[in-house]
Each structure stands twice: as structure tokens, then as C-alpha cells.
Specification:
This protein has 517 residues and is α+β, with helices and mostly antiparallel strands. 32% of the residues lie in helices and 16% in strands.
């Protein structure tokens, strides 16, 4: 544990159940609360432990099954039930802007996906559902709703899970039983998935045609979507609203616990790339460097890589999302590696470019130092809490100047011409939000001023095609990107990925160091 999670100082709170939010007024012969009472005995009984407590079986790690990962009270690594409850309360408070109306939020899990018959991909939960409850299991549905007589953020949270299926669990492992949901995720009630539409029907009556929050445009689970759509078509009045913009606004600003997780993930990402630099010796295959960064990330505590890495040797660095990673990198060439670790559900995203022979050529160093100068200027600009679009403008302005210094762009260009020309050499944005997803909170606009607690990437680049006829020949085929993960603070910024060297002298000293001993 100490080796895997070294350096983490994570907040661990006591796990508390919300006991006062489970009463819903009755409707005719059955009410929402009655459904919960009737079904509390559904599912499997937990095994009695040595200390007399019930040892719950679940489809995800628990403190008593994975004590090397979770501390008592934690739902997922580094995050306790109180934090998840506070997130749900914050969402309900934001949705409850319309006085006199009740609200119901429906968030389905993603299904298990298969690469071929019966061979599953690594499961990845819908990030918004994961954010609100910590559920890492497929085929569940989280429902949150307001309570008659109580104003938001007071609400009731109900997790619907599939019934016990011994044949399926023989293949996929145990599932969390409905009656164990409150203990596993800290929700108020757990019910069988078969009760979902019945529960929603009673909610519709009990709450007087509430506002329904459900992302119907791109549902994560087709089968569950058909079930919900069938209920909607059965006489439900009114349409649906997507809760995702409100959830993304919440996810944008990281809590202290999330910041610690992001520090760990970005640190591991940087260390893994630095270790790969040390083990680089030309000639080398791209897939070997892929294997190295994956290995070093996992050995430092990462669950896995956050995304397929870019390992682009030589001129392939000019392919922004090159992930084939199947070519050889020859002496004298550079490699551009864009890789990040996922740790505890939070992602790092780091890019470095280095010469596989251990020494930059003069032209390579010129381009590399130009990109580094641009990145340092943009990081400095981020201290003033601008928007992402303003950072992009700052990058283009600075990039145009350094390209003039390299004699790549004419000195006669006006500022507006420089901005346009710079974009042709770096045809991607300089920044995106970072968090649980690599390209996090995509519904948050880029023209929103950055606030403390927000984490972004800063990743300028210069890409010069081998076919470019307007630049000095010594630069043809060169592609350089430098990317770091940056936390916005009250008084500036904190570079979370500074465990990976980026000064050219540091890079030349570290590349191939494992073979210089």
C-alpha cells in the first residue's frame, strides 16, 4: 500500500447515512416509500463476519475486501460517502431553482461492452454517474428526487441494481444486491432494477408531475434507455431536461480530495514518462516505449493508462492523434509521447518530446526551445485566471513571434497575420479541462474564466510537415509538443506534472540514463 499509493494524503471521513430523507407522502394504496419498504429484503444476505458485522459482497472494491486500496468509510479510492452525498446535494440544489416544482434525476450506468463474443472490454462507468455515487458496476440506475415538504438540497437517492443471477455472476463476478446499495454507495435505498418504472410511475403521481432530468439525446445504455422511453411514452406529461450541464459545472471545480487524487495521477504520469526516457536507447520500436510507459505507470500505482498513448517517432509526430505505435524510431530522430495515468478514477495527461539518441540536433533543439518558450508564457498567463480561449490567443501570439525568430514566418507579418499563420503550425487548442475524463467536462464553455480548483492542460506544439515548401529544410518533418497539467489556485498556478523533466539539458541528461550506469 505504501509503495503503491506513496505521497497521497487523502481526506477520509466517516460514512454516514442520510436517515431523515427517506419519507415520501403516500399515494393511494402504494407509495414510493412503500416500494422501498417492500423490497428491502430483496437480494442476497451478507455473510456474517468474525466481528458479527455483515460482510457485504459487491461488484467493486470495498474497504474489507480491498484494504490495500480503500480505507474505512471510502466508497472509491480517496473519496468517502460524505463527499458523494455532498455532490448529490449540490446538484439537487442547482436544479431546484424553480420554486414550487419537484425534481427527478435519472442517471443510468454504462453497459458492459464486448470486443468479440463474450470477451469484454475493460469496464468504464459513465463519468457523471460515477461522480455522483461512486458506482463502478454496469446496468445500474441512480434516481434522485425531491421530497414533499422539504426544500432542496434535501432529496432521496435510490440505486436500482440487477437481481442476483448466479449464472451471470459465474462469468462476471459478484454484483451488489439491492439491499446492500446503501452500505456500498451511501444512497438512501436500493431496489431491484425491475422496479424502476413502477417507482417512476409512483413518483410522477406523488410529486405532481415533477421536472424530469434525463439525458435522452445520447443515453449511455440503450437497453435501459428503451425501458425509460417506454415509461415516458406511457402517458408521462412533459419532456425531459439534461442534467449534464449542471453536473459538468460541479465537476469543473475540484474538491480538496479530488485535488489530491489529481496530484497523484499527474505525478505518476510524469514519473512514468521520465522512467521511459531513462530506458530509451536507439533504435527503438514505438510499441516498446508504449509498453514501458504503461509498465512504469502501473508500478507507481496507476490503475491503467487513461487513454491510448501517442508514441510518434520522427515525422509521425505531426499526426496529432497518432496511436498506431508500430514503427521503428531510428537514431537521430525524436519521439513525441502523449500519455497519462488513470488513478482512482482521475486522469493525468502529459506530453514530452525527446531525441532517442540522447542528444538534440541543432534544428531539433531550436524547435523544442521555441515550444518550451511558448508553454512557459502560456502557463504564466494562466495565473491571471483567463478563459481557455484567451490562453489560445496568447499561445498563437507568442507562437507567431518564435516562428519569426526561427525564420519560418516572415518578419513583415502583422499581428493578425501571425495569429493565423501560427494556427497552421499548431492546429489544436492549447488547453482543455482535465479531471475524471482526459477531455473533462466538455459541456463547460471555453470562454468561462478559470477559477481556483480548476485543472487544465497547457500543450502548445509546432508541427512541420515533410512536404512544407515554405520553411527552411532543416526543420522539415519535425514535430514537438510539450504538455503539462496545471491546477488553478487563488494566487497563481501549480504544475502537477513537474515530475517529468522538460528543459532540453535535463532531457539530454536523462535519456538513456539506464544504460549509462
Amino acid at each position: 500500500m505504501d509503495v503503491l499509493r506513496a505521497g497521497l494524503r487523502l481526506c477520509v471521513g466517516s460514512r454516514k447515512r442520510s436517515l431523515g430523507l427517506s419519507t415520501v407522502r403516500r399515494c393511494n394504496c402504494h407509495s414510493v416509500s412503500q416500494i422501498g419498504e417492500e423490497k428491502q429484503d430483496v437480494g442476497r444476505a451478507g455473510k456474517e463476519g468474525k466481528d458479527g458485522r455483515s460482510e457485504i459482497s459487491a461488484g467493486q472494491p470495498l474497504p474489507h475486501t480491498h484494504p490495500h486500496l480503500l480505507k474505512p468509510g471510502q466508497v472509491t479510492f480517496g473519496l468517502n460517502a460524505d463527499e458523494y452525498r455532498q455532490r448529490r446535494e449540490s446538484l439537487m440544489e442547482r436544479l431546484g431553482w424553480e420554486e414550487g416544482r419537484h425534481h427527478v434525476v435519472i442517471l443510468p450506468a454504462t453497459p458492459r461492452r464486448y470486443m468479440i463474443d463474450k470477451i469484454p472490454y475493460l469496464y468504464r462507468q459513465d463519468t457523471d454517474m460515477l461522480y455522483l455515487c461512486g458506482c463502478q458496476e454496469a446496468d445500474c440506475v441512480l434516481v434522485m428526487h425531491t421530497i414533499p415538504g422539504l426544500r432542496t438540497p434535501h432529496h432521496r437517492s435510490v440505486m436500482f441494481t440487477p437481481r442476483h443471477d448466479p449464472a451471470q455472476e459465474l462469468w462476471d463476478g459478484p454484483r451488489t444486491a439491492p439491499d446492500s446499495a446503501p452500505d456500498v454507495w451511501g444512497v438512501d435505498t436500493g431496489l431491484p432494477l425491475t422496479e424502476l418504472t413502477r417507482y417512476l410511475t409512483h413518483l410522477e403521481h406523488d410529486l405532481g408531475h415533477p421536472v424530469l432530468w434525463y439525458h435522452a439525446d445520447k443515453p449511455p445504455h440503450r437497453d435501459l434507455h428503451r425501458r425509460i422511453q417506454s415509461w415516458l411514452a406511457g402517458g408521462r406529461q412533459g419532456g425531459t431536461n439534461s442534467p449534464k450541464p449542471y453536473i459538468h459545472d460541479l465537476r469543473l471545480i475540484k474538491s480538496p480530495s479530488e485535488v489530491e487524487l489529481m496530484r497523484a495521477s499527474c505525478r505518476v504520469s510524469g514519473e512514468a514518462i521520465a522512467a521511459t526516457m531513462r530506458a530509451t536507447r536507439a533504435p527503438v520500436a514505438e510499441h516498446q516505449l508504449f509498453a514501458m510507459v504503461d509498465y512504469h505507470a502501473r508500478m507507481r500505482g496507476a490503475d491503467h493508462l487513461a487513454y491510448p498513448p501517442v508514441v510518434a517517432g520522427g515525422p509521425r509526430a505531426n499526426i496529432i492523434h497518432y496511436i498506431s505505435n508500430n514503427q521503428l524510431i531510428h537514431p537521430g530522430q525524436m519521439v513525441l509521447m502523449d500519455a497519462g495515468s488513470e488513478l482512482g478514477g482521475y486522469s493525468g495527461d502529459v506530453t514530452r518530446t525527446w531525441p532517442v539518441s540522447g542528444e538534440f540536433t541543432a534544428a531539433q533543439r531550436d524547435v523544442y526551445e521555441a515550444v518550451l518558450e511558448v508553454q512557459q508564457a502560456v502557463i504564466s498567463a494562466a495565473t491571471h485566471h483567463p478563459t481557455l480561449d484567451q490562453l489560445f490567443s496568447a499561445m498563437c501570439a507568442k507562437l507567431g513571434k518564435v516562428l519569426q525568430e526561427l525564420c519560418i514566418l516572415p518578419l513583415s507579418y502583422s499581428d493578425s497575420q501571425l495569429m493565423r499563420a501560427a494556427y497552421s503550425f499548431c492546429p489544436h487548442h492549447v488547453s482543455h479541462y482535465l479531471g475524471m475524463d482526459v477531455h473533462d467536462t466538455p459541456l463547460v464553455p471555453r470562454n468561462k474564466p478559470l477559477k481556483p480548483g480548476c485543472i487544465i492542460t497547457i500543450e502548445p506544439g509546432i508541427y512541420i510537415s515533410e512536404t512544407n515548401t515554405t520553411v527552411p529544410s532543416r526543420y522539415l518533418g519535425l514535430g514537438v509538443r510539450i504538455e503539462d497539467d496545471v491546477l488553478i489556485t487563488e494566487d497563481g498556478v501549480e504544475v502537477l506534472s513537474d515530475t517529468c523533466p522538460k528543459h532540453p539539458d535535463e532531457i539530454e541528461a536523462i535519456v538513456g540514463a539506464d544504460y549509462k550506469k
